[in-house]
Amino acid sequence: MSDHPTPLMPVDQAAPADHLPQLHRPRNPGMALDLDWVRSVQANTSAIERRAATLPGRRTVKKAYQAAWLARAITCIDLTTLAGDDTPGRVRRLCAKARQPVRADILAALGLPPLTTGAVCVYHEMVETAVAALDGSGIPVAAVSTGFPAGLSPYHLRVREIEDSVKAGAAEIDIVISRRHVLTGNWQALYDEMRGFRAACGPAHVKAILATGELGSLRNVARASMICMMAGADFIKTSTGKESINATLPVSLTMIRAIRAYEAATGIKIGYKPAGGISKAKDALVYLSLMKEELGNDWLRPDLFRFGASSLLGDIERQLEHHATGAYSASWRHPMA
């Protein structure tokens, strides 16, 4: 992507089907644990951090191109509510926002077709409510499972939670790994755990949350990413959003290069989901440009890329209104529900 890029899609030529959630790709079957490969994985922290530090200033998209990229970002959002005071009413309102994430007058002014978010992400208790609210929309429901966010409940209960969420209608399961397996280098235990979670998901796609802010080093992040992909994860995800450090550009660069290495070795494309701390439209553009440069255009669609976010959508909608009117509006004009 250069200063005058070919856009993801010109705003006035966007086809409605391109802005709907994409059909899931075939599942990642996984592979046998290859400990020699895992132990050979390294991460040059200083080089990764230098590269990441240049990203926000190196790539820009402007005017209609920027609006097109922001529209694409909306289709890659897992619109999320994971609060202790969630209610069915709140979830239904969030689902209504997922169905129509941008006001109709803004879409009309920009010549954009109807948009939807990539998914709605909730706790298990709210899966049935979300599934009913999204009926007929084609928007999948993602459930956070396995003792989210700490992942420290008994293993059989974590597996049962996955099974119950799938039975309730969740098409995607965001699981959390046991961080202690990474911190102690017990790669066999991590592989076996992830393999069990993958089996429990049945037809549902599984996103493995690494909680990267708690793994100690980028090398651990890279190795944990590789283990989870070997064990059958369809996506790897940075964070629960509950850690003190969530998605960062160095972590993202580390994880997507692991994805690239896995594809080169197996031919299987694995999705990526940064989550936590991504709240501004300009940040979404940086992440999209990173995905395009490192992995290519296939990772600019919701079957291979998601943002775990909620407040991000409000800022993107505000930026799109600026493209349509030339003025910035107050944030209250773009409520989440």
Layout of helices and strands:
Elements (H helix, E strand, L loop, with lengths): L34 H6 L4 H14 L4 H13 L1 E4 L7 H12 L4 H7 L8 E5 L3 H7 L7 E4 L10 H14 L3 E5 L2 H5 L3 H15 L3 E5 L8 H13 L4 E3 L11 H18 L4 E3 L7 H14 L12 E3 L1 H15 L12
Parallel strand pairs: 1-2, 1-8, 2-3, 3-4, 4-5, 5-6, 6-7
Helix pairs in contact: 2-11, 3-12, 3-13, 5-13, 7-9, 9-10, 10-11, 11-12
Keywords:
single chain, 337 residues, alpha/beta, TIM Barrel, eight-stranded parallel beta sheet, 13 helices, 45% helix, globular, disordered N terminus
How would you characterize this protein structure?
Helices cover 45% and strands 9% of the residues. The protein is globular and about 55 Å long. It has a single domain (11-333), classed as TIM Barrel (Alpha-Beta Barrel), CATH 3.20.20. It is α/β, with parallel strands linked by helices. An 8-stranded parallel β-sheet has the order 7-6-5-4-3-2-1-8. The protein has helices spanning 35-40, 45-58, 63-75, 88-99, 104-110, 127-133, 155-168, 179-183, 187-201, 218-230, 249-266, 281-294, 311-325, and strands spanning 77-80, 119-123, 141-144, 172-176, 205-209, 235-237, 271-273, 307-309. α10 links the parallel β5 (205-209) and β6. α2 crosses α11 (249-266), α9 packs across α10 and α11 runs parallel beside α12.
